[in-house]
Every structure is written in C-alpha cells, then in structure tokens.
Amino acid sequence: MLPRTVLLMLHVDQILDQEKCTDSGYKTLENSDKPLFFKDLSKVFQCFKGFSASNTIFIEEEPYKALLNPDNTGVFPLSYDPSDTKDNLLDPEGEFCSYLDGLANSSDVQAYIKEHPFGQPMIDSSHLDWSYYRRVSNIVS
User: Fold this and answer.
1) Are 137 and 38 in contact, with CB atoms under 8 Å apart?
2) With helix as H, strand as E and coil as C, how does 114-129 read?
3) Interstrand relation of 22-27 and 35-38 (parallel, antiparallel or unpaired)
4) Which end of the chain has the least Cβ crowding within 10 Å, N or C?
5) What value does the CA radius of gyration of the chain take, rounded to a whole number of Å?
6) What's residue 135's pLDDT?
7) Could you report the per-residue pLDDT of 69-95, keeping only the tens digit for each?
C-alpha cells in the first residue's frame, strides 16, 4: 500500500475571508444582490509552504468560487443540512468521508479528483453558465 498523502484541508474562510478573496465586481447568477468572490488557492499556498495543487483539496459548496484555481483541486458537495436526518455528508461512514479516505491514499490530488468526481461538477466549458463565468474570471485573472 502506498503511504498516505498529506493533504492540506482547512477552513479556507480563515485565510481567505471576504477581504482577502478576489472580488470580481459582478454579482452571482443565483442572487443579484450577492457579490461574486473567488477564493484563490495561490494565496493559501503563500501561507503554507510545501503545499500545492497536487496535495491540496479545496472543499466549497459553490463551485464558481474555485474558478481561479487549477483544475481538479476542488470538490463541491451540496450543503450539509443538520435538520435533515438523512443527510450523511459528515457521517464518518458516509460517502464523503470514504471519498476523502481514498483521496488521502492517492499520490496526486488532481488526478484523483479528475478520475473520481464527487458532488457538484466544477464549472468548465460544459457548464450551462460557462460564458458568464469565463468572462468574469478572465476579467479578474
């Protein structure tokens, strides 16, 4: 068995709070009053030397926030609902924890995420709103 990969998993909001996120100057498509912010992993890598796209996973409920990040570095589960007794997202025996275990046993985060998609898909050229998100992300990058 391969040695487990050391993964950087942290609450990115601790490092990339709204002040440190990249403000696109646009609003989200879901809510015309909500600013569209991106969470740029390169800012996290500046704080944690030795971590990169190959050993870091970005977990976020809103895939658009990862548009400035390298492909296959994000996983986008649906929001956990503690009032839903059938929601097992945080169950240690559940699908997500099993996914994270598989990820920790992989040698490359990006390759694992690409080969084993989980949750909502990343926003790419196959996404219905790709033209909007591509335009906005190109403006800020």
Assistant:
1) yes
2) HHCCCEECCCCCCCCC
3) antiparallel
4) N
5) 16
6) 96
7) 999 999 999 888 889 888 888 888 889
